[in-house]
Every structure is written in structure tokens, then in C-alpha cells.
Amino acid sequence: MSAGRPLTKAERKKMNRAEHERKIKQDLIAQHGTDLGTFYAWLRIVNIRGTQAYRDGDTQFIREAALALHNVYSRHCG
């Protein structure tokens, strides 16, 4: 319940997705440690959201994710 009313279908879907992403992050951090687990969680969530964006035809999200990943690579590998 939010603001004294039941959640709409879209609000429930958004809340469930956020909880699922939070669980993914917690599981990966517990398995791999803070730094590596956070990075793996980021990759996993970007993969999920990228797949959804691809299906919806949103190429801007995919470009931004690829640029962010390239920036991380450049920072750590030269």
C-alpha cells in the first residue's frame, strides 16, 4: 500500500523489479565480496535492462551502457 491506496499494476511491477535487482546485488556481494560483487551486479542488471530496452527498440540505453562499460575498462586497463 502506498499513500493509503493499493498499488497499480505498473507500480507493483516497478516495485517487484527493484526488489529483484536488490536481491541480485545482495547475493552477488555475499558471494564475491563488495567490489567484485557490485561490479557483477551492475553487469547483470545492465544486461537485464539492456535486453528489455532492445526489445522495446530503445538503442540509447544500450549506447549509454556500452560507453559506461568502456569507461570502466579504460580506467582500469590503461
UniProtKB/TrEMBL annotation:
It comes from Streptomyces finlayi. It comes from the Bacteria. This is Uncharacterized protein.
